Give the backbone structure.
Amino acid sequence: MADAAETFVAECFWPGVSTDDVEALDRRARAAAAETGPDRPIRYLGSLLIREDEVVFCQFEGRADTVRETAERAGVPFDRILLTRRSLG
């Protein structure tokens, strides 16, 4: 992944979401990311289900425009896409 890559989450408010829904979403997002050409690198990093709030966060690494395009192609039901920063300490 290029140095310019950033990390984003697609925030999805998803009433009635199930584990099966999220697993299917993960498969679609991985496939959509794999279909993106080498000139627009992107990685799907996985999802986080907050069942109590009916929210799913799908995490991507890439450029903002590529993340949005990939999420749309995968049918991610996002309300917004947010730039994130991860701390490992």
Q: What stands out?
A: Helices lie at 19-35, 64-74. The CA atoms of residues 5 and 62 lie 4 Å apart. The chain has a mean pLDDT of 92. Strands lie at 6-13, 42-50, 55-62, 80-84.
